[in-house]
Specification:
With about 475 residues, the chain is α/β, with parallel strands linked by helices. Strands 2-1-7-10-12-16-18-20-22-24-25 form an eleven-stranded mixed β-sheet, with helices on one face. Strands 3, 6, 8, 9, 11, 15, 17, 19, 21 and 23 form a ten-stranded mixed β-sheet that branches. The protein starts with 7 loop residues before the first strand and ends with a strand.
Amino acid sequence: MPDDDVAGRLVYVNGRFCPALSKETGIVRNLSGEDFASPDSVRDEIRGCLSRLTDGFTDELAAPVDDGDIQLTSNAKLSSPNHNVGDPQSQFAINSQHGSACFAALNTVRTGAVALVDVPDGHDEGVESPLPVLIVNARTSDGGAPHGVTEEDTAGVACHPRTLAIVGENSCVSIAQSCVDLDDSETDDGDEDAVGEEAARLFNGYTQVFVKAGANVTHAYIEETGGMVTPGVEGGFVEHGGQIDGSDARETESNRLSMRDTHLETIDVHVTGDEGTYRGTVMGMGGTGRSRVVHSVSLLRPGSHAEVNGFSLAGGAQRTEVRTNIHHIAQGTESRQTQRNMVGGRATSSFRGRIRVERSAQQTNSEQLSRTILLSDKARIWTVPSLEIIADDVQCAHGATVSDMSEEELFYLRSRGLGREVARNLLMYAFVDEVSSSIDKSIQGEYDDEFGLRSRCIERLQNLVPQGERAIMGEFQSV
């Protein structure tokens, strides 16, 4: 996007800041190790935010919570004495954790730069569509391994991107994070002994968002690394009465270099001011072999509101996982969560969504819905929505569905002249559009933009469109 169309842009390649491709402004800048060397260059609020860990390992709440005549400041003592989770190392606490604290701590120790979005009070107040802030993390095929390093020296490379957003009172901001592959084939020097494309890559990101009173934050996280998965790995489908063998596709998928890669991302959001609003969307569409995204939102002040939307696309032989945690702590908070999953090939995916309503969070209104489409008989999904309600004056609901594409809807589209694959792809994109439409319009791009998010999403969906007729006819759906 041109500089005039963004409020700021920070670009990182293999975790290293690229000033030539970036646009630093008054609210967007990169923090390096030199900035932290001087105690006056970075204020204490930023240092305190960067020191926080997830899963309750930082016990102090990001903001005090009123509970009658007292103020709650300890995460371990919420809803005490009978319903508090206690020490984060206790078995009761471990059962409700997402296992992200260790990776957040590793990121804190190993990160080389911090993408800082520091929005002052009253910034773009009342603006309906503020210019977005772009944070791009690009990966090369060698993961940034130094030339001359062989596989005998290292089995892989890792990068630990860090993002911190602090949004002031009555401010409005749109933040878009993107993880992409950078095609650097032209820079290959032909050194067969170098780690290069054969190095396994670990991406361990950590994003923190703090929303103050009256602030309005729109946040999007889009993961597209790892290229395209191999289509047709499910094999064994029937077309024109003949049996199709997918063994060649399975072998191609198992040898695909990105199957060795791991993508981890922890997104930790705290609404610390009255009437603060956070709208977050996570879209995982990459081809990385293993990926896990943990998205946590804590509502700490009265009137705070959160919308959490997610889409996970898995195919080939991928293993993907999405974990969410919406924590209602203050009175009169509200949340809405929509999770869409689409699993094809021989992929395995899981979704674990947790909503906890503390005793202090009376008059909470919360909804959670997870919907999944299985594109092949070999695909697998585990979806586990959960509610933990300690308060007694709440309105909460959750649900989950797992189904295949509707034969009735496919018949309707095909009776109107659409081909089988086109009809399936149309239904697949309609399933995704509810989530993707919540992203900033400038990020989505125009309908005819071949590089826009819509076009990229359609391309990946087309790669997973089921081929041939189903072996077992009829519809399946579990509610």
